[in-house]
Amino acid sequence: MDSVIGIGKSARQAYGFDDIAIVPSRRTRDPDDVDISWEIDAYRFDLPLMASAMDAVVSPASAVTIGKLGGLAVLNLEGLHSRYEDADAVLQEISELPTAAATARMQELYQQPVKEDLMARAISEIKAGGVTAAASLTPQKVREYAHIVVEADLDILVIQGTVVSAEHMSTQTEPLNLKEFIATFDLPVIVGGCASYQPALHLMRTGAIGILVGVGPGAACTSRQVLGIGVPQATAIADAAGARMRHLDETGRYVQVIADGGMRTGGDIAKAIACGADAVMIGSPLARAVEAPGRGFHWGMATFHSGLPRGVRIAAPPLGTAQQILTGPTSLNDGTMNLFGALRTSMATTGYESVKDFQKAEVVIAPSIKTEGKFAQQHQGIVDYT
Amino acid sequence: MDSVIGIGKSARQAYGFDDIAIVPSRRTRDPDDVDISWEIDAYRFDLPLMASAMDAVVSPASAVTIGKLGGLAVLNLEGLHSRYEDADAVLQEISELPTAAATARMQELYQQPVKEDLMARAISEIKAGGVTAAASLTPQKVREYAHIVVEADLDILVIQGTVVSAEHMSTQTEPLNLKEFIATFDLPVIVGGCASYQPALHLMRTGAIGILVGVGPGAACTSRQVLGIGVPQATAIADAAGARMRHLDETGRYVQVIADGGMRTGGDIAKAIACGADAVMIGSPLARAVEAPGRGFHWGMATFHSGLPRGVRIAAPPLGTAQQILTGPTSLNDGTMNLFGALRTSMATTGYESVKDFQKAEVVIAPSIKTEGKFAQQHQGIVDYT
Amino acid sequence: MDSVIGIGKSARQAYGFDDIAIVPSRRTRDPDDVDISWEIDAYRFDLPLMASAMDAVVSPASAVTIGKLGGLAVLNLEGLHSRYEDADAVLQEISELPTAAATARMQELYQQPVKEDLMARAISEIKAGGVTAAASLTPQKVREYAHIVVEADLDILVIQGTVVSAEHMSTQTEPLNLKEFIATFDLPVIVGGCASYQPALHLMRTGAIGILVGVGPGAACTSRQVLGIGVPQATAIADAAGARMRHLDETGRYVQVIADGGMRTGGDIAKAIACGADAVMIGSPLARAVEAPGRGFHWGMATFHSGLPRGVRIAAPPLGTAQQILTGPTSLNDGTMNLFGALRTSMATTGYESVKDFQKAEVVIAPSIKTEGKFAQQHQGIVDYT
Amino acid sequence: MDSVIGIGKSARQAYGFDDIAIVPSRRTRDPDDVDISWEIDAYRFDLPLMASAMDAVVSPASAVTIGKLGGLAVLNLEGLHSRYEDADAVLQEISELPTAAATARMQELYQQPVKEDLMARAISEIKAGGVTAAASLTPQKVREYAHIVVEADLDILVIQGTVVSAEHMSTQTEPLNLKEFIATFDLPVIVGGCASYQPALHLMRTGAIGILVGVGPGAACTSRQVLGIGVPQATAIADAAGARMRHLDETGRYVQVIADGGMRTGGDIAKAIACGADAVMIGSPLARAVEAPGRGFHWGMATFHSGLPRGVRIAAPPLGTAQQILTGPTSLNDGTMNLFGALRTSMATTGYESVKDFQKAEVVIAPSIKTEGKFAQQHQGIVDYT
User: Which one of A25, A341, A345 has the shortest CB-CB distance to B199?
Assistant: First the structure.
């Protein structure tokens, strides 16, 4: 299947969401008969949704909001809420920084050490909201703070980095052995990211209940540009779904595949599931909710690396409430709102009943949607409305 | 033939009109010897043309105009003409709405219920014009209003939705069984849309005389962006043509394949036929006729869905009369006018005699035409005029 | 080799100049040792160059200039020089028309009938200049005016239309039988255009000494947009070269393959030859010579079709003398000047000695050069200068 | 593996850096455990870096700076430093030329003859800085000036042209026989450029210790546009790596593959190595150092060819110090600074230990990163930060 890059190197073709489209089947279905709920471990959610562990997206307060809307928000336990007594004041300051000064000041702000009591407080605030509580730690820090999340009675722990592998090599420190850690840890664990078959399979073998799939998922992604690393998301998800099948065959255990990143519209979410995802983790679309802690801005957690930043604070002007963004209704027609209403309509239109069922949808490789082109065409009055 | 998206998913490559071009054969032909007429059921048309069932394109009056020019216009029986005694006043209001207020006001306007007497009146106005009368109903409503179209002596009924399947699933309502409905219905029926082989084949088996092919046909299509659904139109048509061949072999009955949507120029129409279409259904090019009911604007019928709009009112500034747009003459050189003169010239230049014959034309996969690029090149004086 | 467009249609992939690049061989060569001369029939030219039969490019005067520079200019015998006693005045008027009025006025100007005495006078002016004289007629008119070119002692006749086939079908008129015509005609004949294997082979069998290859060669070509017709030029030339090989095998006669259109730079000309062309026919690059009859404008001969124009008068601001454009020297670095110096350098750099030898050069399929992108990159200072 | 361009021509698909991305393996690694040092002949460098022999990039002074930062700068022995006693004054003048006058004046400035004593002086200045000294000569001049570099005790000689072959053909002069020259020459020699398997293999057989790979490497490269020549860099490197393997098998001698050109970001450098390069040669990124002799401008050495210039003086506004550009730290997030910190992070993230090890990294063919698109997306707040 591989193409030849040159005499000394082969590679396979990878595909992103913009490269594919979902094909209707020979059935259609009432939207009311479509089930988009999601179950993982002992938990059930109305939406197959995790909210990204980013400071501009998930605070204890917005985690409760998202939870009540049917999703699972993940608090970044190494973010501002664990570094500052009054994180809201810091978030407010960030939202008021002039663009030119933003990076330097944010590099400073993230130098502040995390505090164990703030971690515990944040978790308890989420639990007090009556929703399932999830939070993330990096592989570097998870052993140090694991006791806190257990004591705070977290529901699901997420161990997350840009890339997390089952086998981290280090001569400097004793590297985390994920498999041993998870085996002895009291809470269910989701790990990621990964982006291809073997790494996904090895992460599944650590005992995680779910894996996050997505490394440099978009063609314009910073990881692609700065590091050269990335797998277009449709291929990464399909690979992980293949690993899930093999792991299920080997062990009888079904590990959830959660597509993380690269989704902007309801159509992207539908494609993620049609490629094999059980659920999606989204950040930037939720950063545009009026309830978002980012207050009109968004940034990734690798953005303010002190030596090699990979990202920038960008404007994320509010579009509507989290509810409007997730389940509508909306009067916007570009796919950025009512994301899960769109998923439901997509499944109904193509005749599928459940998320698991929709993973079997036929997809075609289709020319990319280019946003620029689209607007150019609209000005000329030639957009098709089928 | 399939490509591997990832370990767990395959897909085939699909192609749109911009991805292909028609190749001259070893013959050429006099344009006067080219026959572009179209026959369906007992009806014959000078042009292989249906006009889309959109309020900005087809009113009873414009249906007569288009009919006299040789095409078959389809009135949307669930549109404004069936909701308002004075639809022209409403269309006028829409054309005067400021952009910011358009969506909200149009959502309101389309809340008005349809009225059976207005449906009947609209049909009779078309028939009074002396042309073949066609009108559309959605699968949801067709049983309720079928009696009206029979009583009003409609010639051809179109049952149309974004996607229509031969097998609609619902636990809430008794779903329409298309095959039973068509078998017992007195008028010839065209159904659609569909966009691939199996769905097309199953629609043909319902007894329809023609099927509409096109779901999210363009790369910039709203269905692609909001729902993730769509099949590039060249592939969708070729699939439907394949289904037509198999259905003909199985039953001896030839079902017409009508390419619906995604065509902007005469070249696109030629490509639709070269991919296997018997006729084309076009909307936005006709919305730019001075006679168009949209008065310089255009919108799709899914545009004003109350919870998940998929489209927007866009400017469609008049280019010329419907006659100039369909059969010329024109002084415009971008392919948007004299659409069927261009089809005739295309067939003559490549040596084909009839629409059926032209379906056999050789096509190549060729780099996309990018409108932006084209204008950029013109500024530099490098456009080729061959 | 074919791809499947859909169940009912196959197509092969075609390539344009922007899709390919030439690969250096394991040899290099002194530019002074490279031979780019061209021989056809009894004629020898310093450059493998024909100038297009377009009114903005070739007048009797510019034909002499181009001939003295080493190329073969083709006068359009159905153009302005055959319609007006004082064609220069008409060309001057065209160059002064405001943009909005240009098309309409030019449609009028081309209504003027051609005059036999003016045809003869134009040919004799070229011959008086001491260069090889070539001129073109359309297949529709060639029988009517053939006697003139014989009497005027033309050297080479070009029979040219957008598409010319060996078998033109008509029930209205007695169609031209090219093979019979050429067999009984006293002058050597070049015919075209064509754009794929079978049509090229059949044109070769008419007895022509060369064929013109190019129909809608560029992605932005008007024939592609208006008519849907076109073959990317690299593929069209390679097909014609394949036909040349078969025809040589069948008959022992070598028919010249002349790439017509779609070339803007020296790199494009090099690629045309590397795909198998024996020579190139160029128009728009020469329209930018200060000597060009178009006086800063350019238009194709199908531009002013009265019912379906396919083209427009575009600005072609002068770049330099015809000599600078063809053989330099130049201070421009975008490939649009010193076209044949670039060809010589390209052949030397990749190690080839003659045009015939260069047809064997290795090419790769390489990502397109996008002009827009290039300028964007230059602003950011990232263009590579290798 | 070849595609058919047309009946008479085949070609294989080639890939550039923008067409590929690196895939994480199932391991990750501490950045501190990653070794990015480079050894060639008797020399060891902290970075797998050569700086291009361009006047805007390498002066004797900047060569010392780059050497101390861990790279190997190559001085162009036929550049301004060998033509002018006070090259700095000339570089200053160039930086002050108005754009319109730059090309003409620079054509004049490069007419000044080179002087042997200035060559020797430049080399001794580099050596006095205590770093490894490398300098380049063209194949045309290397025999004439070889004695100088030997006498000046240069460490490594680079013989470089746009394309250098093992077999240069000339009837005019006695061509350089590279193999004989290198065999009898006292210093280690690196030669290039080349861009595919056979030419790379033949250059290796000349006895060179390393070859430069890159001819028209970028899609926007001037060689591609003016000459039609070029091989996308990922393919060129992979081909050279294949040649290295065969040459090693045949001779037991390992010849270094140095990717030259087409790299703008740390990600590009990572991809060059993942395709098989042992080191990279970069120019334009270093032209943006505050220490760069180009003083905010950059030009290639083929830019001021008197008859067919291929390049232009372009702005290269300073980004930071050479140290910041090469090894950081940086606050820029677009990949253009801390290039080798990015390489280290890329290798750590994907689990590789050494440059040689990283050559085995899995790559995928992935949709291009389009700079334009990226900025467009950022404005809309949809960039993903994974």
Answer: A25
Measured CA angle at D159 (ends D156, D160), to 5 deg: 130
| Pairing of the two strands A189-194 and A156-160 | parallel
CA distance C47 to C131: 13
Strands (E), C270-338: 279-282, 297-298, 314-315
Which residues in chain B touch residue A235, judged by CB atoms under 8 angstroms apart?
Answer: 5-6
Q: How many CB atoms lie within 10 A of CB A320?
A: 19
CB pair distance less than 8 Å for D373 and A220: yes
Question: What Å distances lie between residue A71 and A133, A135, A208, A324, CA to CA?
Answer: 11, 14, 20, 14
A164-215 pLDDT, tens digit each: 999 999 888 888 999 999 999 999 999 999 999 999 999 999 999 999 999 9
Asked if residues D293 and D62 have their Cβ atoms less than 8 Å apart, the reply is yes
Give the integer Cα–Cα distance in Å for A273 and A48. Answer: 9
Residue D384 is assigned to a structural domain of this protein: no
On whether the CB atoms of residues B57 and B292 are closer than 8 A, the answer is yes
Q: Which DSSP symbol is given to A69?
A: T
Across all residues in chain C, what is the average pLDDT?
91
Q: Reply yes or no on whether the pLDDT at B288 is more than 70.
A: yes
| CATH number, domain with residue A284 | 3.20.20.70
In a domain, C17, yes or no: no
Report if pTM > 0.90. yes
Cβ atoms within 10 A of the Cβ of B172, count? 9
DSSP D270-318: HHHHHTT-SEEEE-HHHHTBTT-TTTTEE--TTTT-SSS-----EE---
Amino acid at B158: V
Give the CA dihedral B88, B92, B95, B97, nearest 10 degrees.
-130
Which candidate from A7, A198, A307 shows the least CB-CB separation from D242? A7
Note whether residue B127 is domain-resident: yes
Lookup: tokens for C161: 């239309």
Cis peptide before C329, with omega less than 30 degrees from 0?
yes
Number of domains in chain A: 1
Collect all residues with Cβ–Cβ distance below 8 Å to B252 and sequence separation of at least 6.
Answer: none
Look at residue A118 in the predicted model and tell me its pLDDT.
98
- Collect all residues of chain B within an 8 Å Cβ-Cβ radius of residue A370: 219-220
Q: At what angle do helices A197-204 and A233-251 cross, to 10 degrees?
A: 40
Closest Cα in chain C to B236? C6
Residue B239 · residue B194 · CB < 8 Å: no
In single-letter form, the type of residue at position C364 comes to V
Q: Please, what is the average pLDDT of chain D?
A: 91
Overall average pLDDT of the D363-367 stretch: 90
Output the CA angle D19-D21-D23, nearest 5 degrees.
150
Write the ipTM: 0.92
More confident call, D318 vs A3: D318
Chain C hits for D232, CB-CB cut-off 8 Å, are: 21, 364, 366-367
Q: Summarize the confidence of residues A215-226 as an average pLDDT.
A: 74
The tens digit of pLDDT for each residue in B305-336 reads 777 777 778 899 999 999 999 999 887 878 89
**Cβ count near C286 (within 10 Å):** 28
First to last CA, chain B: 35
Q: In which domain, by residue range, is D244 found?
A: 15-379
Contact B104 A331 (CB under 8 A): yes
Determine whether the interchain pair B199/A330 forms a contact, defined as Cβ–Cβ distance below 8 Å: no
In-domain check, residue A25? yes
Prior bond of A329 cis (ω within 30°): yes
Chain C residues whose CB is inside 8 A of the B366 CB are 14, 16, 219, 224, 230-232
Q: How does DSSP classify residue C227?
A: I
In angstroms, the separation between the Cα of residue B358 and the nearest Cα of chain A is 25
